[in-house]
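Re: that chain you flagged

S.,

Sorry for the slow reply, it's been a week of failed gels. I finally had a moment to sit down with the sequence you sent. For the record, here it is as I used it:
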Amino acid sequence: MVSRLAASRNEEAAEFEPLPTYLELAMAAATAHDRPKVRQRKGFFLWRLSPIEKAIAVGIAGLALYGLALIGDGFLLKVKAELSQVLLKRAFAAELRGEATKPWPWADFTTEAKVRAPRLGKEAIVLSGASGEALAFGPAWLANTPQPGDEGTAVIAAHRDTHFRWLQYIKPGDTIEVTRRDGKVLTFKAGEGRIAPWDASGIDPASNGRHLVLTTCWPFDATERGPLRYILEAELVDGQVTGSVQPVNTKPLYRIE
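Prediction finished late last night. Pasting the structure tokens below so you have them in one place:
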């Protein structure tokens, strides 16, 4: 009985304890922000995604990797193209000195000439034979046609999106220069360009006169190869040795079938 009375008195005393002062409340509020926050455990973000979100994330990552691969491949091709042009020019310079030289040991072609469009400031080393490897590195002289400057019609072909892209900008009357590997510099006068099917080009290698044909696929902005060809015909106007190139190489010109 006595214990019950004591407990009752303690409860009544607790009810009438003094209220916290303003200072105590302010200190309590200030220290509340200093309490360390309980960190929630986080796992790898993919595990927190739904199956659909995971599929989208994987797809985006795959596209990004594919884009990087394309950029790297394009950069590598550009480097290879630049390096190959340096090697081709070096090999052609050796041919002018009378040295039989391949651009690189495993090449299945040689350098035969250099074609230049002075007004456009464009030039390219012409290779022997129109094989796939040769056309990948530069214009190729078709071996079943005469050498540029010889009697008949010489034909040089190249891809429209690389070495002969500038062909579309040649105007009638423009000068086209061809330097053969025997040192002779030939000047041709460009005529009108025309379009014809590849199997009905109308080109006659045995025609009278000394002509040059530069040809490539058409249209120039196409992404796939088609049956049409752009054909630019030119006529020889000066076959004398001009400029600083001297005919050091006196070996007979030859064709690679």
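What I noticed first: The chain is about 30% helix and 25% strand.

Talk soon,
D.
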